[in-house]
Amino acid sequence: MAPRKIIIDTDPGQDDAVAILLALASPEEIEVLGITAVAGNVPLELTAKNARIVCELADHTHIPVYAGCDRPLNRELVTAEHVHGKTGLDGPVLPDPQMPLADGHAVDFIIETLHAHDSGTVTLCPLGPLTNIATAFQKAPDIVDRVQEIVLMGGAYFEVGNITPAAEFNIYVDPEAAEVVFNSGAHIVVMPLDVTHDALVTQKRNEAFRALNSKVGHAVAEMTDFFERFDKEKYGSEGAPLHDPCVTAYLIRPDLFSGRHINVQIETQSELTMGMTVADWWRVTKHPPNAMFMGEVDAEGFFALLTERLARL
Ligand SMILES: [Ca+2]
């Protein structure tokens, strides 16, 4: 089978970095057409820089990296330096990128790419707030039907929230954009906190990255070491959750995940529960399903895949 063509829309972020590395390490299953940066974990200037740092870490400097929206559709940007550090990629010491940003805006790249390829052959992989994707859908509504699938990290149901008691960070930062995407009619697969909080980098899994004894292995071990501190304090968990790599792992091994095809609505009105993903897991409404909302991951299989693929870089 031909590899699946994807655009990674991202706000790196240590876990975004690992998600990108997993995709770049898997050319048989995944062809990365480009990477689009969005403001999220840290401001756009840093996410656009970090995306290039990651490409250079993997020696994939031919991948075009575009800068996108620098703030949510109609809100001030909320960032997460408290989790990811000042640069967004705190942990390893990595050189500033030499590769330039690609010319043009990320939103235009998304639109042009969907126009240039056969309908139904390009998958979007958002790993941050959905601002770039929603802006593209608003600017060129005809591209929605051309998207093969949107596989995104965002939201939560049973785990509820991580940035507020009710909301997950990516959706909270730009709930209006999330609403556009979830109501678009595109085929959506969601990796919520319910899944990603089971993808924990335990000490043993961190050591497996380090034992790769490569530039990439050491960098990933140091990145996950860094944001582990935060999660251990917050949740008392045995390691940091690797949120975003669940998206790229799904493209390679969908069988590692299971969930339900259900209706998911985004809260955009209440200040108390802003950005909540109201997921009809128990199917108590008659609202039609609009998303495959994942609930479980085979964590052992996920980390085995990740470690095996990172060894290739
Ligand atoms: Ca992210």
Notable traits:
313 residues, binds calcium ion, eight-stranded mixed sheet, alpha/beta, two-stranded antiparallel sheet, 12 strands
Bound molecules: calcium ion
- In the sheet with the most strands, the strands line up as 3-2-1-4-5-6-12-9
**Which structural class matches the secondary elements?**
alpha/beta
What is the number of strand segments? 12
Q: What is the distance, rounded to the nearest whole angstrom, between the alpha carbons of the first and last residues? A: 22 Å
Number of helices: 12
Q: What is the overall silhouette?
A: globular
Order of helices and strands: EHEHEHHEHEHHEHEHHEHEEEEH
In terms of quaternary structure, the protein is single chain
Q: Round the mean pLDDT to the nearest integer and report it.
A: 96
Which stretches are poorly predicted, pLDDT < 50 over at least 5 residues?
none
Largest sheet: 8 strands, mixed
The gyration radius over C-alpha positions equals: 18 Å
Measured as a percent range, the helix fraction is 25-40%
Strand content: 15-25%
Question: What features would you describe in this structure?
Answer:
It is a single chain. It is built from twelve helices and twelve strands. The protein has 313 residues and is α/β, with parallel strands linked by helices. The strands form three sheets. Strands 3-2-1-4-5-6-12-9 form an eight-stranded mixed sheet, with helices on both faces. A two-stranded antiparallel ribbon has the order 7-8. A two-stranded antiparallel sheet has the order 10-11. Helix 5 (131-139) links the parallel strand 4 and strand 5. Helix 1 (14-24) runs antiparallel to helix 10, helix 1 runs parallel beside helix 11 (245-252) and helix 4 (106-116) packs across helix 5. The radius of gyration is 18 Å and the shape is globular. It starts with a strand and ends with a helix. The mean pLDDT is 96. Bound molecules: calcium ion. The site of calcium ion has 9 residues, from loops.
